[in-house]
Amino acid sequence: MVEIRQLYKSFGKVSVLEGIDLSFDQSGIFAVLGPNGSGKTTLIKCILGMVIPQKGDISINGDSILRKWNYRNHISYLPQIANFPQNIKVIELIYMIKNLRSQSAQELDLVEKFGLQPFLDKKLGNLSGGTRQKVNILLTFMFDAPLIILDEPTTGLDPVALIYLKELLRKEKDRGKTILITTHIMNLVDEIADRVVFLLDGKIYFNGTADEMKSQTGQRNLEHAIATILKKEYY
Amino acid sequence: MTVSLHMKVFLFCFLTLSVVSHAETFDVCASCDYITIKSAIEKAKDGDTITVRKGIYKETEIFVNRSLVIIGKDLPILHGENKQESIFAVEADNFIISGFKFVNVGMSYVKEIAGVFLSHCNNFSVKDNYFEDVFYAFIIHRSSYGIIENNHIQGQARDESSSGNGIHVWKCENIRIERNKIYGMRDGIYLEFVKKSVISDNHSIDNIRYGLHFMFSDHNEYHHNEFRTNGAGVAVMYSKFIDMHHNTFHFNWGMASYGLLLKEINDATIENNYFEQNTTGINIDGCNRIRYRSNHFVRNGWALKFTGGCYANVFEYNNFNFNAFDLAYNGRLNDNRFDGNYWSEYVGYDLDRNGIGDVPYRPVKLFSFIVNRTPETIILMRSLFIDIINFSEKVSPIFTPDALVDNHPIMKPIVW
Amino acid sequence: MIKILKYSFYDLMRSRWSYIYFLFYLILGFVLFFLNSDVNKAIITLLNIIIVLTPLIGTVFGIMYYYTSREFTELLLSQPLKRSTIFVGQYLGIVISLSLSLVVGLGIPFIAYGVTRSAAVWNFSSLLFIGAFLTFIFVALAYNIALTFNDKIKGFGFAILLWLVMAVIYDGLIMIVMMQYSDYPLDNFALAAVIFNPIDLSRILILLKLDISALLGYTGAVFQRFFGTSMGMIIAVSILSVWVILPLLRIISVARKKDF
Q: What is the domain-level CATH number for residue A189?
């Protein structure tokens, strides 16, 4: 489904991605992990077309997506910081995104599930960080796109919302979707990820299942597995 | 005043005399004994009256050399057929011409041609006439004690070289020009080497050069005239002792327009005049000992513009209201005094409430100073930059001269 | 693009600053007419304000809008939209809401005082037209600066500097050059200098329309001859348009290559 070949990206002198080769060719949940500055977000943004790589190619369903925009009709994206226009009401934002995508959306279920009903008529500027993140999640999942990209989806969520989020992810996976996720919450990865891609200094350090990673590093849980890798590299 | 008294006495004697000597009256019209004015004049003697009835008379060079009263009844038309000849050519004393309409007086680049051409005349009155499409309306040479009154002159001047003046006076004395209306000529009224004359209550409008023009003419007075939308309102050049008061100069607006242009004028007084919306209210070039008092300068581009050296002029009790620039000058201004004027731009205060501002006012803005040095910088007018430098100069004057100050600016405008 | 435009527009129309900007012009208009009934004089005062304020407000709003809506812009970028659509849409949203504040804010008092029936209506309209044009230009320039500098403080600083250069420093330089070379004929220099600064060009265009153009003297006559013809008018409007189009093209090209 998503095919990344020899992807290079640097910002000025800082090289962020150094020849990434990666493909997500079946449905499932793929966790992209790595320490800060390893290039996770850049990689995701490359797929979304927000960052333009210097070299390499990304194709989705066989078509290169560089400098194109139509393919984003088939992607739902949850950005890291949900900073919306301050003066717009939640309901208006929902309608606006729906309007922009000109796709049908199931927002009502999600509104109910995340308890956003009382906030619909509030301005986004007046919402708490957690509520905003819920709105953010709602905007992502209300469309029925085959590729879902989530950048730190758990930020600011209360436990109940987190459970709903996981539920949502499983449901979407069961519907045959490809889900890319970056997160710092290793439990989440352990729990739901089918495959883990570990980025380090712009390269793919590990690509496999969480269990494989654990056994490779000889650790019992993922957090320690990653810590082992990092220690080996840096210390 | 002496002139007018003189005239009245004279006219009275003249009229009385004509009655006593059984003056005859000649009628001129198509069906009268006299068909042409010329033929009537040939027969007439001093003191006779010629009455010209309604009609069109295509006569030019009507020569008058006797003391006649020539009166048009029901506005007969004197048609010049655009010939290169004047209509009336008068060389006489004690006469009256009135009630005619002069049309189509020919234009010439070499010859002076007028509706009424007076030369060496004394004691005369030309009044209540209409002039349309004439080269000159009046040319008056070497004459005295005449009155030009209530004439209505309408020209179609296009450029200076092909047009003539409304009332052109040369080497005359004691002439009065009153209550005339002059439109669309080169100069409305032109005076050269004219003395002791009074120009009053005229309206001089839309003339392409000046509304009123003095050259080498001393000891004259003009008052209560209106000068509107002329090339320049009034030009007073190379003359002394001119008394200018109660005139209105307005809307003389254009690239090189002035309300009043003074060139090398000494010992004049300019009082109670109203200058409104002229590009330059008064352009003052090399003038000394002039007293400016109680004049109103309203919304002119420059209220006063000095060029050349000007000495010992006094400006008192004038109103300067909303002029783009109150004052501009070139070169040096010595010994001129501004005192007790009202300046609408004055922002000082009057703590002792005596009606006089406690801080002196400097009428020269820095920008005005710069424009005078480099005229092209005028294109920066109304730029924020200019406002800033004007303001900073106002706060701490560096460039504008210390001497040019009104030390007693008054807080309220003088009521007109 | 229309959708983006609409949202940016509504977003701005709801912000406090738009109201303040609108009310400012509204009050200014009424006060000017209340103080003097002479329309031409009011227009001259307005000219002073508009040629300084519209570029400043355009610059500040442009910069602020870009930086405060950056995350939201990223959200938009992840949507199936062309980049040029997003940025040009936002640009038009800002420009239209600002121009509307200007035109409606000043238009209401002018209509209330019956200017539409006077001869000044053309002068007034061209003043509003120029004000709107300056808004278009300076928001475009501000967006260029914002797209170039990721650092908000830097971008803001440069934007203010740009305004300062255009509104003040440029004229100061012209003045210094003119005074330095006052022995040479300067009319063509003046003409060229004015043409290259949209604020100066706007100022001169309005001045030439008002009767104070007579004060511009011989240089003014040169300008009048140039701008008085329909060709000169076309050139002037074209130059102003170039000031909009070039920055706009740069917005599109920078946006295409930029990483977010």
A: 3.40.50.300
